[in-house]
Predict the structure.
Amino acid sequence: MVRRKKVYEGKAKILYEGPEPGTLVQYFKDDATAFNAEKRATIEGKGVLNNRLSEYFMTGLGNIGVPTHFIRRLNMREQLIRSVEIIPLEVVVRNIAAGSLSKRLGIDEGTPLPRPIVEFYFKDDALGDPLVSEEHIIAFGWATQQDLDDMVALALRVNDFLSGLMLGVGIKLVDFKIEIGRVFDGDYQRLIVADEISPDSCRLWDVATGRKLDKDVFRRDLGDLADAYTEVANRLGLMPKNKSTTGPKLVN
Ligand code: UDP
C-alpha cells in the first residue's frame, strides 16, 4: 500500500492528493479550536457531522447554480473536492449583530441589521485574521475589483439560500464565513465556494428559544457541541432514522 500524500493540514481538516489531477480529498477532523487556536478540544463525531452538513449545503448551492468545490462525499469523514487557489480572505456575511461586530461597534448581540453586511478578513493566523477593506485588498493584490464584485455576489447568494433553508427548520442564520477559490478553465478563471459550510463557520440560533446551535457552544462553554450539531442535522433530516420498525421483531 502506498501512503497518500498530505497536501495541507489545518485546524479542523486535512487535504490529501485526490485520485485525479485537479482534485483533492478533504478529511474532517474532530478537533475544535477557537480564539485563534488558544482554546482546543477534540469533540467526538464533529468531523462526521460537518462532512455531512457541508455536503448538504454545498449540494444545495450547486442545485441553485452557485458553483462550489464539492464533487462527492467519499465516506463518513471525507469528500472529494476540486482543487482551487484559495483567495486569502475570509468572507463573512452578517444578518444579525453578534461576535466581533458587536464587540467592535458596541451593538448588542441579537440586533437585526438593516441589510446583510459583507466583511473581509485577511487570512493570517499570526496577525489574528484582521478585518480589511476593499482598498487594502486591491492595493495589496489579494484580489481584483472584479473578484471582489464576484465574491460579494456569491456571498449574498449563499446567504439567501442558507437563510431560507435554516428558517425552514426553525433556525436563524445570524452570520457565517465562507472561503472562495479560483479555478481556471483554459484562459478563463472563475470563483467558486470552497472550504466548508458547517456550524463551525456559522452562527445558528433556534428561532423559538434562542439556543445556540453552532461553535459558540464551544467558544463560550454552553454545553455539548456534538449535541448542537446533531440537532441541526436532525432538523434538516440528515440523521439516519431508527430502522427498528422494519427489522426482525422479537417474539415472546
Ligand atoms: N468565523 C469563522 N472562522 C474565523 C472567524 C469567524 O468561521 O476564523 C465565522 C464565525 O463562526 C461566525 C462569523 O464567521 O459565524 C463571524 O465571526 P466574528 O467575526 O463575529 O468572529 P468571532 O466572534 O467568531 O471571533
User: Anything to note?
Assistant: The longest strand covers residues 171-185. Residues 90, 92, 98-101, 129, 175-177, 201-203, 215 surround uridine-5'-diphosphate (CB under 6 Å).
